[in-house]
Specification:
This is SET domain-containing protein. InterPro entries: H3K4_H4K5_MeTrfase, SET_dom, SET_dom_sf. It is built from 16 helices and 31 strands. By secondary structure, the protein is α+β, with helices and mostly antiparallel strands. The protein folds into 3 domains: 330 residues, SET domain (Beta-clip-like, Beta Complex), CATH 2.170.270; 73 residues, no CATH class; 103 residues, no CATH class. Strands 20-21-12-18-17-31 form a 6-stranded mixed β-sheet. It has a 5-stranded mixed β-sheet with strand order 24-25-29-28-27, with no helix packed on it. A 4-stranded antiparallel β-sheet has the order 8-2-1-9, covered by helices on one side. The longest helix is centred in the N-terminal third of the chain and has 20 residues. It binds 2-acetamido-2-deoxy-beta-D-glucopyranose (2 copies).
């Protein structure tokens, strides 16, 4: 690989740039490998850049987002199995929790939505000093309507997630081989770490500047200082002065990170700063990644070639028979019951009166959509949520070109096969210790759709569902014409102007990304007493971020050049009697979302079935805790 690349570079000089481009596309852009934050006691996967990413560019491909509704409340049964179920929810939500990058917070009007976003979302580690990536909300909100099939009532409705293109982008230039750390949000940092104990990237820059100054100082006074006084001054600088300047907590970390003697400071500068000096394994060589990692961007999403199947996974480069299509760490779910859905009700905490939700009765009315993305086996109560990038887009075929196998990576813990399902969540095992790989069973060309076999039971259940759907449609239980969804309207109004005063369907809600400033050439208050503001782009933060998304109503429209601007009315939730008029809102800042409880996922007749791990792959032993197949015969 490396030899090929340098050869390529030589040829580039001699011939044309074609060679380098082709080679670049073949080069893996993203690897799954052991994180720099991994320890023997708690192994962690990480994501590494296989090529350099410039600031603001997208990392990998957009992924699917699967919303879970009230998972915790559904687990609070008041019965004996509650401990296990809440334990599973805890573990699961540790990895998975952000509805905001894709708009999941609008799915329920009360209660908790936790959104599973595989790939970058679940697997990139947390390291507040090193954050170099963040969600790009607009890529999911303004996703292209791949196979949305406006108005068509087909059996795929409600059986797959309609949320996708959940993407992360670089917030800094990222060099080849660097580990990717996503921003967990300010709240997370505040809740989960003592501010004083962490060095931010800004801190690191300041320390680097100080290191330079210290080196200059010792150079200047080289002749006057002997070794002993040099060391004495150095210790004084890095301990007492640093603590006085940075505070005790941070000062202590800084002195631990810096070398013991001033002469070694040059090594800090040479390695590119204190950050790289203190954590050299943050950057891995391509050879290391090739050997110890697994390429994670061989597949990209697109509209599936199967009718009514929504999105599918396609080869982004050619993949030889036997090669890994995609790696996928699994999140172990010891009891499938955790995905059952019940009616829920509000209760109040005895001590502080805070509101929370619990199960109301024990009648199961459905399953979380997540079930359709989990791997399972008919002889087991266990499920496994695959967290690999793009893997959840892979659809089913009886003539597949890929299959699921266990990985031979040393961090795949096949000794877990001998543990009881519950043991997989015991202290000491609460990490992602299972790795599967989707492996090509045939040569796959670039652009081919990837298929695995979901199993005979899945196929039977699906065939049954398709028949049932047609019957229900005839009887009018499911609509003959599917209601218009937010995604349909967003596609329609990508370029077409909105009509002021138009009636849009009841099940959608218009929202505007609003960042505002006071007007300069008009009064900040109009004759009716409404505040007047001007739409503006955020100077330092992302404007198209869902924290800036508010309900809005169009008041008027101006045609500007080849696009449109609107004045909109915005009312704060705190005081809806007052409105603010925001002027010059661009077309691209306006979007529809589905109202709570209305998106396709809520279809009661939606299909639910796990994807089967092939029988010869699913381990014998304690995981086969359900022996249903034999009982039924
Ligand atoms: C976010 O994604 C959108 C749509 O793909 C793109 O136009 C925009 O440049 C991206 N923004 C950043 C900051 O990466
Ligand atoms: C395609 O895959 C999705 C996700 O696993 C699934 O929900 C859907 O039913 C599949 N469709 C077909 C036709 O296989």
């Amino acid at each position: 690989m490396v030899a090929k690349r340098s050869l390529c570079l030589l040829l580039v000089a001699a011939l044309s740039s074609k060679c380098s481009r082709a080679e670049e596309e073949n080069q893996c852009g993203l690897y799954l490998a052991t994180s720099s934050t991994s320890t023997a006691a708690e192994p962690k996967w990480g994501i590494f850049a296989g090529k350099s990413y410039s600031k603001q560019s997208r990392i990998g491909f957009g992924d699917i987002a699967i919303h879970t509704h009230q998972m915790e409340a559904n687990a609070l049964s008041g019965e004996d199995d509650e401990d296990l179920l809440t334990n599973i929810v805890d573990f699961f939500e540790n990895f998975i929790w952000v509805p905001h990058p894709v708009g999941g917070q609008f799915e329920l009007d009360e209660g908790k939505v936790v959104t599973a976003i595989p790939g970058g979302g679940t697997l990139s580690c947390f390291n507040p000093k090193m954050t170099n990536a963040d969600w790009n909300h607009s890529s999911a909100f303004f996703r292209e309507p791949w196979n949305e099939e406006k108005g068509v009532s087909h059996p795929g409705r409600g059986s797959y997630s309609t949320f996708y293109e959940a993407s992360i982008h670089a917030t800094d230039d990222i060099e080849e081989g660097m580990e990717i750390f996503i921003s967990y949000g300010e709240n997370y940092v505040n809740e989960n770490s003592d501010d004083n104990e962490e060095l931010s990237k800004e801190d690191m820059k300041k320390v680097d500047m100080t290191v330079n100054k210290i080196v200059e100082f010792f150079e200047k006074h080289q002749d006057e200082l002997d070794e002993e006084s040099k060391n004495e001054i150095y210790q004084f600088l890095i301990r007492d002065v640093m603590q006085a300047a940075a505070g005790e907590g941070k000062g202590k970390i800084i002195s631990e990170v810096l070398p013991d003697t001033p002469d070694e400071l040059r090594a800090v500068i040479a390695s590119g700063g204190v950050l790289d000096y203190s954590q050299p394994s943050l950057v891995r060589s391509t050879e290391w990644l090739e050997q110890h990692g697994r390429c994670m961007d061989n597949i990209r999403p697109g509209p599936s070639t199967i009718p009514h199947a929504g999105r599918g996974a396609f080869a982004s480069r050619k993949i030889a028979a036997g090669a890994v299509v995609a790696p996928t760490p699994l999140i172990q779910i010891p009891d499938e019951e955790v995905l059952n859905m019940y009616d829920v009700k509000v209760e109040y905490d005895e001590n502080d009166g805070t509101e929370f939700h619990v199960r109301n009765g024990n009648e199961v009315f459905g399953s979380q959509l997540l079930l359709n993305y989990c791997y399972g086996h008919p002889e087991s109560h266990m499920l496994f949520y695959p967290a690999g990038a793009g893997v959840s887009f892979i659809n089913h075929s009886k003539k597949p070109n890929a299959q699921l196998v266990w990985s031979k990576h040393p961090n795949h813990h096949s000794h877990w096969f001998q543990l009881e399902p519950e043991e997989l969540l015991e202290e000491g095992n609460r990490y992602l210790g299972l790795l599967m790989e989707v492996v090509a069973t045939k040569d796959i060309a670039e652009g081919d759709e990837i298929f695995i076999d979901y199993g005979d039971l899945w196929q039977e259940a699906w065939d049954e569902h398709v028949k049932e759907w047609e019957t229900l449609k005839k009887r009018g239980v499911v609509p003959k014409r599917w209601p218009t969804r937010a995604a349909d309207l967003n596609a329609e109004f990508a370029t077409k102007p909105y009509k002021v005063g138009a009636n849009y369907p009841e099940n959608v809600q218009m929202k505007c990304f609003l960042v505002i400033s006071k007007p300069v050439d008009e009064e900040p208050m109009n004759a009716n007493g409404d505040k007047v503001r001007i739409w503006t782009k955020h100077k330092t933060k992302e404007t198209f971020d869902s924290s800036n998304l508010f309900d809005c109503t169009l008041i008027d429209r101006q045609d500007v050049d080849d696009t449109y601007e609107y004045s909109v009315s915005w009312r704060s939730v705190a005081d809806p009697s007052k409105q603010t008029i925001v002027k010059h809102v661009p077309q691209k800042a306006i979007i529809f979302v589905d109202k709570p409880h209305t998106s396709d996922q809520f279809t009661p007749e939606g299909f639910r079935h796990y994807i089967q791990i092939p029988d010869d792959v699913f381990p014998e032993g304690p995981w086969r805790d359900a022996a249903v197949a034999e009982d039924e015969e």
